[in-house]
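Why do we bother with holo predictions? Because pocket geometry can differ from the apo form. Keep that in mind while you read this record for S-adenosyl-1,8-diamino-3-thiooctane.
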Amino acid sequence: IRDGWFSESEVMWPGQAMSLKVDEVIWEGRSDFQDILVFKSATYGMVLALDGVIQLTERDEYAYQEMITHIPMHAHPDPQSVLIVGGGDGGVLREVCRHAGVQKIVMCEIDPQVCEIAQKFFSNSTATAFNDPRLTLLHADAAEFVKDKAQEFDVVIVDSSDPVGPAETLFTADFYRSLRHAMKPNAIMCNQGECMWLHLELIGEVLSHCKEVFPSVDYAFTTIPTYPSGQIGFLLCSTAPNVVLRSPARTPEPELAAQLKYYSSAVHAAAFVLPEFAERVVAKV
Ligand code: AAT
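The structure, written out:
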């Protein structure tokens, strides 16, 4: 923070930095895993940054949380058991809990302090469902946690930070192999998939790791002002062959649809239509 403005650290996006005007710093410190910063911004509400990288702002978080959650949840015909990897702010959990058919949710977030801070400062936005009785909350490296799991989950949502830092383990073929083992037949996973404007090469690599492990793979994206370059993607994988991830298996129940601000069935299908420069890379994998 300099002269009243927060600028994002640019390790993974050299030469550019998103800046937000700061009204008040609310919390600043270091956990066992990362630097944590919470501040009130002038025009984007409360903001959470980890290691200098924006994880959420109250103004636009739903564009990410809804899409990373509802694309896999609606690509699956009847998800009952869900694993959330990362997601310590609780936003993905909030969206998963909106599905009445879900019976069991396991969330594996490496850093307990992120969950504590979310419940303290984001209890009106993302951290609304930590008391849901369906939730089991664990604090571990998800790459370790999934190693001995078999056929447990219908949907896995990997809401992880970028591969520089504690999330490095979550972008490897080993992790995807363990995940596949932890998933039921016909299960779907959705992974934070970085930005096609910045990381197309990384996306191609990670997609090919996924292809080694999963028979059906595709890539979608959402728009979001406060993530680098205003856009972030998702890697979608199914444990079954020939699953068309871009066609939703279900439409949102009316009660859910009324709460959604970004996701719809039309947006689901459209999110997989990529600009030609990205389509070429994804189609080649
Ligand atoms: N919904 C907010 C967006 C995130 S959160 C990423 C979370 O993943 C963080 O809370 C972090 O502590 C957790 N995490 C990182 N590594 C691991 C791991 N190995 N196991 C379990 N949890 C982990 C992502 C924002 C994307 C930013 C785009 N630039």
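The mean pLDDT is 96.
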